[in-house]
Amino acid sequence: DVKGRLAAFGRDRSSLKVLPGIVPYVGASRAEAKVKQNRLDALIEPALGLSVLSALIGNVDLSGHDLDGPLPELPPSNNSQSRQALFVAAARRDNLTIRQLYQRACTANGHRTIVGTPKDIADDLEKWHRAGAADGFVLIPAWLPGGLEDFIEQVVPILQKRGLFRTAYEGSTLRENLGLPRPAFRQHQDQ
Fold it and tell me: What 3-state class would DSSP assign to 75?
C-alpha cells in the first residue's frame, strides 16, 4: 500500500525499502527454540518488564494489576499511540497476560518474533519477501553473541542457497547495497 502511493509523489516503487525488525530464536527443533525464548523471558524482572511496557504503551501504570491477568482497558495516550495500539492489539488477539506482554516488550519491543528451526525461520522470511511484504529485515538478536551467531551460522546459509541473502556486498555504502539511487542535490532556498 505504501509503495503504491509513491507514484503520486513522483517516486518509483523501488525507491522505498520496507525492512521490518525480526527477533529470531533458532533451535535444532521448534521445542529447543521455544526453550531458548522461555529461558530469556524468565530472566526479566517484573519491575523492569512493567517499566518497559509502560513506556511503550503511553506511560500507563500497570503496577496495581495482576501480572498473570489480562491487560486492562487503557486510557488514550498522546505518547506512543502506534506502539500502544500495537501492544493492545497483540494482547487482545493472542490473549496475552500482562507478564507475557512485557516479555514481548522487553525482547522484541513490538517487532516480530520468530521461533523455530533454521528452515522454519528461512521459510517465514522468504514468504514475507516473496509476498512483497518486506524487501529485507532488520535483525534484532534476543541476546548477544549467541542469538546473532545462531542466525548467521544456521539461517543465513539457507537464505543464501535460496538466493535470498547476498554472499558479497557490491557497493561501499548502505544506499548502494540496498539498490537505492543517490538523491539529486536540491539547493536550499532561504526565505
Answer: coil
For 62-75, the pLDDT digits (tens) are: 999 999 999 999 98
Q: Taking the mean position of all CA atoms in its chain, how far away is CA 38?
A: 18
Number of Cβ within a 10 Å radius of residue 153: 11
The enclosing H or E element of 38 equals helix 30-42
Ranges assigned E (strand) in the chain: 21-26, 112-116, 138-139
Q: Which of these, 115, 102, 58, 113, lies nearest to 82 by C-alpha position? A: 58
- Eight-state DSSP code of residue 166: -
pLDDT tens, residue by residue, 90-104? 999 999 999 999 999
Question: Which residue in 164, 91, 63 sits closest to 122, CA to CA?
Answer: 164
Query: What's the Cα-to-Cα distance from 176 to each of 15, 100, 166, rounded to whole Å?
Result: 12, 40, 13
CA–CA separation, 157 vs 154, rounded Å?
A: 6
**Is the pLDDT confidence value at 191 over 70?**
no
State the sign of the Cα–Cα–Cα–Cα dihedral 180, 182, 184, 186. Answer: positive
Contact 155, 25 (CB under 8 A): no
Mean pLDDT of 20-47: 97
Round to the nearest angstrom and report the end-to-end CA distance of the chain. Answer: 35
